[in-house]
Amino acid sequence: MNNERRIGTILSYIIVISNILVGLIYVSLLIKYLSIEQYGLYRLIGSLMVYFTVLDFGISNVVIKYYNKYRLSGENEKANNVLAFSFIWICIVSVFILLISLFVYFHIGNIFSGSLTVSEIYEAKIIFLLLIFNVIITIFGNLLSAIITSYEKFIFLKSCLFMQVIFQPILVFIGIKIIPTAINVVLIQTLVNLLFIAVKLYFCFYKIRIKVKYYYFDKVIIREMGFLSVQIFLSSIVDQIFWQGNQIIVGSSLGTGEVAVYSIAVQIYMIYLTIGCVLQTMLSTKVFNMVEADRNNIEIYNLFVKVSRLQAILLLCILGGFIIFGEAFIQIWAGKKFLLSYKIALAIMIPFSISLIQSLGVIILQAKNRYLFRTIAYMFFGVINIVVNIFIIKLYGMVSIAIVTGLIYIFLDGFVMNMYYNFILKFNMIRYWQSIIRIILCVTIIIIINLILREWIEIKDIYTFFAGIFIYLAMYFFAMRYIVFNDYEIYLYKVFINKIKFLSINK
């Protein structure tokens, strides 16, 4: 791991932790200063807008793969052509988004007529327009981030993200203290986003000095980029159907208050998702380069297993903690009226853990141009998820649609995709799960012990809450160190401890 990637990984986890802490404070402040209806409106339109973000057709991953491929091989004309095609495509996509958004804008009233008031529909339209602009500049910003990632300038990229994580909530808080509306929240977010995109733009053209020059129409590049792009696009749509579709169903069927409750659950498992994608993001360039260099499939498989184990150790620690303390946490953080969010979050987090543990597999599929199967599978089951949830929500409530989504995830990621990895990519998935199962069993036992302790030790305040977490973490890390860790993980542990000792000595 080069120095940029190593420091970038450290910064990524610092950002994730900061994002979690800031996000928790951020949401609680939004709930406090906005009405539950205003917060629900903000989350509802936000969930609708996510579908527009996928219209970049996965250009970021395409750029990382093909720009990096031609740049490293010294084919500068082709590399510059890739960037030229990408920027042209972003312009075309932006026009397309504007056309679609105009149609949606004039039908917002019809979509939510049964659940939103006249004033809420008016505000929803203004928020929608602001978010459309935000989406367009975000897609452009994602392209710039992909270019910076291709050069593995992780320190700059992650530093920008860290600054945005810190300063955006501060500015939003100041804004809602003055004007406590969802419109004001979105306006400030858009302005901050625009500022940091300008910083990335400067870095790309004046620091790493990229050249965006169209030389000629290259059918081969267009075809290759287009094939991968369409696959990622379709898969992204389906991912958003799983992630955001349920919120829209809740909003159109029940109302903004219920959306607010469901969105708290979404906020929690999106934090879980963010943590789970750190290593995937940092290793994307490495995986693409390994495939382009025609590295041995066993080597790629071993990396897959190694990263999956690290993901499992980290993610199951978080999941176990939420199972034990999640209900108490939501009560402290958001209030008793959001307690239902605990069940909703768990119904998705538990099955989704399979997908997150295997998140590097998605990058491997993209690198090997084997992404189409995942796309088709997710499209098919995404449609089933939406249809079933539309019918059951009014009968069984919000928890039921989360359970349905979770069960579909278990089947998709736990069975279908694992069969594909095994028989098509030739990954030994039996050996793979043998390497993971000890972690799962160990975590399960720790959770059971802590749940029994919860029956004896009641969480009465913030002090007993953190005391319980401390006991859980102590048990967890002891079990991991002496029961679960393999030689490589013990090595990482010792390196980490030695660095802490070194820093303390130097202080």
Order of helices and strands: HHHHHHHHHHHHHHHHHHH
Strand content: under 5%
Helix and strand content put the structural class at: mainly alpha
Give the strand tally: 0
- Based on CA atoms alone, the radius of gyration comes out at 23 Å
Helix content: over 70%
- How far is the N terminus from the C terminus? 27 Å
**Count of runs of 4 or more consecutive helical residues:** 19
Q: How can the largest sheet be summarized?
A: none
Q: Which spans have pLDDT < 50 for at least 5 consecutive residues?
A: 502-507
Mean pLDDT: 81
**Global morphology:** globular
Give short descriptive properties of this protein:
single chain; mainly alpha; disordered C terminus; 507 residues
Explain the overall architecture.
With 507 residues, this protein is mainly α. The chain has a domain at 1-251. It has helices at 3-33, 36-53, 59-72, 76-105, 108-111, 118-150, 154-178, 182-206, 219-253, 256-276, 278-292, 297-333, 340-357, 360-367, 372-396, 398-423, 429-456, 462-484, 487-506. The radius of gyration is 23 Å and the shape is globular. The two termini are 27 Å apart. 37% of the residues are buried. Mean pLDDT is 81; it is low at 502-507.
List the SSEs and their pairings:
Blueprint: H1 3-33, H2 36-53, H3 59-72, H4 76-105, H5 108-111, H6 118-150, H7 154-178, H8 182-206, H9 219-253, H10 256-276, H11 278-292, H12 297-333, H13 340-357, H14 360-367, H15 372-396, H16 398-423, H17 429-456, H18 462-484, H19 487-506
Helix pairs in contact: 1-7, 1-10, 1-11, 2-6, 2-8, 2-9, 2-10, 3-4, 3-6, 3-9, 3-11, 4-6, 6-8, 7-8, 9-10, 9-15, 10-13, 11-14, 12-13, 12-17, 12-18, 13-16, 15-16, 17-18
